[in-house]
Write a structure and sequence with these properties.
With 243 residues, the chain is an alpha/beta fold. 40% of the residues lie in helices and 15% in strands. Helix 7 runs parallel beside helix 8.
């Protein structure tokens, strides 16, 4: 677990009214569901010392898709971005999900890539879906339980970044990671959920700004500016990836 995470988790629990015992229960359940976990050593070998694209479902994703498609680098996506990627014939190597996305598509992606399933108190009823995933690894936002690990992060998008950092990506590039005030159409957010969604995005942004001085990875964004991440253009991307 990244140093200082417990304090951040305490803030999240207090702000959103979550219950720690529910998160722990979810992690315990997921540990019993994932009987054969994808080896972390293989996950590390995919990411370590390599440039990584992290792809969210923010408003800028649509314009970024043709650019993302050009590059053969490791792609880690939040589950709500998965459908847009697949529709554009882009195959992410890793999908990070708390099971709010298209479960049939996530299951299909687990045959060729890795699905990182996050357990928390609000998705306990969906965790059995992980039984159907071929290459799967479990995470939690509380303490490690059995096979279930805490790499840090709160939403699917920022968890992608924490994951890439944890396994030693040389460079991390953000696409479709805009953090409000507009919510991307790919996120499929209901009007009734908009206020909470925007609040979560702001927390995600704050967590990435907290991570920035701690990580050994070089950080870049092709989305909205974020403290600690170098803002670059699509024209600057190639040089930044391969330099």
């Amino acid at each position: 677990m990244i140093r200082g995470w417990n304090a951040k988790y305490s803030q999240i629990v207090q702000e959103f009214g979550y219950k720690r015992q529910d998160d722990r229960r979810a992690a315990t359940i997921l540990d019993s569901i994932i009987t054969k976990q994808f080896p972390m050593s293989k996950l590390k070998s995919m990411i370590n010392n390599k440039p990584v694209f992290v792809i969210g479902s923010g408003p800028s994703l649509k314009s970024a898709l043709p650019i993302i498609k050009k590059y053969e680098v490791v792609k880690i996506c939040a589950d709500t971005a998965l459908e847009a990627l697949v529709q554009n014939k882009i195959t992410p190597q890793i999908t990070v999900t708390d099971l709010d996305g298209n479960l049939a598509l996530i299951k299909k992606s687990s045959k060729t890539g890795i699905v990182i399933v996050h357990a928390h108190g609000d998705n306990i009823s969906k965790l059995t879906s992980a039984k159907n995933f071929k290459n799967c690894l479990g995470t939690t936002q509380t303490k490690d339980i059995g096979k279930i690990s805490n790499f840090g992060g709160f939403t699917d998008g920022d968890r992608c970044v924490f994951l890439a950092s944890r396994f030693g990506a040389s460079k991390i590039f953000l696409f479709g990671m805009d953090f409000g005030p507009k919510i991307g159409t790919y996120s499929n957010t209901k009007k009734s959920e908009r206020r909470v969604k925007l609040k979560k995005l702001q927390y995600a942004k704050t967590l990435l700004e907290w991570l920035a001085p701690k990580t050994q990875s070089e950080l870049y964004t092709l989305s909205n500016p974020i403290k600690g991440f170098k803002k670059i253009t699509y024209q600057q991307l190639e040089h930044s990836v391969f330099s």
